[in-house]
Amino acid sequence: MSTLGVVTPQSITFGTPLELQSGAVLKDYTLVFETYGRLNADRSNAVLVCHALNASHHVAGVHADVNGQPLPRSEGWWDNMVGPGKPVDTNKFFVIGINNPGSCFGSTGPMHVNPDTGRIYGASFPVVTVEDWVNAQARVLDTLGIERLAAVLGGSLGGMQALSWTLQYPERVRHCVAVATAPNLSAQNIAFNEVARRAIVTDPDFHGGHFYAHGVVPRRGLRVARMIGHITYLSDDVMETKFGRELVGRERGDAPHYSTQDIEFQIESYLRYQGDKFSDYFDANTYLLITRALDYFDPARTFGGKLSLAMARAMAKFLVVSFTTDWRFSPQRSREIVKALVDNGRDVSYAEIDAPHGHDAFLLDDARYMGVMRAYFDRIARELLAESATTPEVAA
Amino acid sequence: MSTLGVVTPQSITFGTPLELQSGAVLKDYTLVFETYGRLNADRSNAVLVCHALNASHHVAGVHADVNGQPLPRSEGWWDNMVGPGKPVDTNKFFVIGINNPGSCFGSTGPMHVNPDTGRIYGASFPVVTVEDWVNAQARVLDTLGIERLAAVLGGSLGGMQALSWTLQYPERVRHCVAVATAPNLSAQNIAFNEVARRAIVTDPDFHGGHFYAHGVVPRRGLRVARMIGHITYLSDDVMETKFGRELVGRERGDAPHYSTQDIEFQIESYLRYQGDKFSDYFDANTYLLITRALDYFDPARTFGGKLSLAMARAMAKFLVVSFTTDWRFSPQRSREIVKALVDNGRDVSYAEIDAPHGHDAFLLDDARYMGVMRAYFDRIARELLAESATTPEVAA
């Protein structure tokens, strides 16, 4: 249960156009965000948490119903990590979660009206990149009067944003914590994204991305996309331990029903359930946009593929965390980041956590993982305290 | 180029019902097969090659057009393995390839008419298992007058059939060669099959499996299924080497087009091409049947999951081959088979080939792999010669 209690999303509408990497422009747009804890007097204790594929600004705490009562099962997606007394301790830090543009959880996205046409964006929402998101996030910080982040933190696609912060705004990031991430997608990563996208785009209910006008949702495609995703989030081992070859409603050793279309195995039941749930709440165009942002992220691209050259701009201190059984973004990918930082003489800590859960481990309560995160954020808090003690009163 | 030349498929129609593991019965059915080389006088040199998911009886040689001229690109799927002077040398062995029932390459399957109803089987074709296929294959051997096989050979799902032969007909198999296979599917293996099946079954053109009557094919589903399959056939490394992050029609380092639906990366182009090609020739109901046969195979099921107990029946000598980068059926799964055989004191050779290509390696020309296969089949040929030399003339 959340120790943070009820939290309320806020939003800012920006009138200044956001120029995107593709050359397109978001003329005006709204970003939804949440904050937890209090910004200190010298505005030095802000931690930005960047979200991954299907998450949002709602990092921690619970949402309330119209009567102000906590809604059941409304905990933020990283409530185990962020809160009072949690590894990212909101008694010490002012934590910010921002929903990225293109998402489907409140910030301007494909489900909204394009002011130029008066029609819903749908598939015509411009392609957004990790770099675009970081630029958008920076504007929220500007509005909140935060010049420099104590830390930028993210897992998976969120970790890519954290890395990109250190390259786009090196002087605005004190620490970067990049968990279960990679400096770019491998061919296999792109391949899985592409199959998921094909499943969505070829669903007749997709209508070229303008399905809203038809009153339908490409559920078949979304289900298949989510099922593929879930396979890559779990390790082979944990899938074996959790589901193995167990049959639904039968004992191990029993004969199956012998059907090509009915559910036989527990793993099938699990995947279908996850697919159904996802298709109830996630937007198909957002899925395309976010997987493309993943595909395109590649800070080394303009440096001849040399990550060490790309990371030379970074001035932050780094914590990089990977999980042994993560085959989506394997420890090897994290080690590439660490090597590039070491090549540049940067201050980097690296933890390779022996955890069974695969990529999903970054969201779960693993004692060693939580311990590493807590220790690192405690170090940041001590740094801030030491610095504030040496700051002349007049500057406060 | 095939050294075997033009080969011609044959077929046998069986009037005796085939009782299936599910309890269903195939009342009458036709099996298509090919043979290469000559059966020797004592009928001891027969090698049965079992096929995997999308292959067929056409193991080696080329097919001819109506004028008897070789058709371009019509080589059998294992032409590099089987032929005169090849590792499975048709100058020494009489090699047989049989198309399994439920397939879509000539043997009775979902595209044929159900004699009971006068209508095309479609989704009502009974579920077939590896054990059913082995029983069907045994009837072809009966008809050809082959009591005992010099060897049964297969890769992947074909390897499962080879293993099952040694359990269903222990006295009819002298050697079993099981390549890139597993004693059952893992939860992750089943998961990939299930996503592929969902993509097919939820394609509106599937029509509950009776799409033939509607004059359509569930191409969208077949494409997605094949794309998923291809990802699991290739190793992460070989995908990286072959495709990496290369963009279509652009140099490495160039900016992409920024599109969510157009092809950007080479890997996308490759997967879409493979999906398109597959949807042109493969039957959707066959895909469901064959993936289910994979899911269901589990000789240890009725032995409390203990493979050593299951393999006690086997009397053959074994060669088990795996490939280091195969993550679909990893070397660990082959070692489970080897351990079960060793537990039973069986004669087993095991080769773990250090090859980069992933599961697909079993179809490719790797010098060490080909060397192992050649050496093992040479040993079988020598055994046959030695035995025939000691066989009294009168028995010949």
Write a compact overview of the structure shown:
The structure is a homodimer of 396-residue chains. By secondary structure, chain A is α/β, with parallel strands linked by helices.
Please describe what this structure looks like.
- 2 copies of one chain form a homodimer.
- With 396 residues, the first copy, chain A, is of the alpha/beta class.
- Helices cover 34% and strands 16% of the residues of chain A.
- Chain A is built from 10 helices and 14 strands.
- Chain A has helices at residues 130-144, 157-168, 187-201, 219-233, 236-242, 266-281, 284-296, 307-310, 331-343, 367-390, and strands at 10-14, 18-19, 25-26, 29-36, 46-50, 82-83, 88-89, 94-98, 113-114, 119-120, 149-155, 173-179, 317-323, 348-353.
- An 8-stranded mixed sheet of chain A has the order 1-4-8-5-11-12-13-14, sandwiched between helices. In chain A, strands 2-3 form a two-stranded antiparallel sheet. In chain A, strands 6-7 form a two-stranded parallel sheet.
- The mean pLDDT of chain A is 96.
- Chains A and B meet through α3, α4, α5, α6 and α7 of A and α3, α4, α5, α6 and α7 of B.
Highlighted features:
homodimer; 396 residues; alpha/beta; 8-stranded mixed beta sheet; two-stranded antiparallel sheet; 34% helix; globular
